[in-house]
User: Which sequence fits this backbone?
């Protein structure tokens, strides 16, 4: 029988793919000149450049012969280098990957300070360096959790987004 020799064009014409740090968030953007049969994109991340996991899935435009910029933002808690790739998937399940890009945006390059510290029992204190969405938990030396408002005298560990960030001394 005759062989089918259709040349399959790249499903998207990818102009750019970037990852940028934005105050603890990672802004990932990509630009395409056109899309053919494009079902969706998957943004992938990796801590070693080998094993990748999905961050987010964004619908493509199917067939579009025009420019489009796509953007997502997410909170990256790993302080080290993170590799990103864009995976593009067709309606028929075929897929292609972009070249990887690298960013180092982890929250841990922010520093947090309790003010004042040490603080007098019952006195108000605050944490410097927080942004919206940060999760703050307070633990005593026995690992019990406490609320900010009613700390007895002692030493407390302030845990921000699951990582010990600073100590607070109450006297």
Assistant:
């Amino acid at each position: 029988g005759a062989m089918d020799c259709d040349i399959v064009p790249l499903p998207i014409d990818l102009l750019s793919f970037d990852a940028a740090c934005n105050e603890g968030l990672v802004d990932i953007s990509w630009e395409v000149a056109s899309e053919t049969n494009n079902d969706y994109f998957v943004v992938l991340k990796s801590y070693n450049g080998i094993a990748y996991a999905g961050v987010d899935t964004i619908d493509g435009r199917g067939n579009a012969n025009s420019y489009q910029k796509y953007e997502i933002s997410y909170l990256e808690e790993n302080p080290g280098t993170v590799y990103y790739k864009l995976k593009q998937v067709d309606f028929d399940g075929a897929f292609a990957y972009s070249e990887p890009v690298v960013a180092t945006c982890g929250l841990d390059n922010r520093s947090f300070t309790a003010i004042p510290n040490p603080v007098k029992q019952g006195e108000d204190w605050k944490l410097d360096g927080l942004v919206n969405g940060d999760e703050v938990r307070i633990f005593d030396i026995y690992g019990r959790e406490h609320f900010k408002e009613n700390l007895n005298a002692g030493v407390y560990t302030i845990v921000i987004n699951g990582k010990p960030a600073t100590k607070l001394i109450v006297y």
The two ends are 88 Å apart (CA to CA). DSSP finds no helices and 13 strands in the chain.
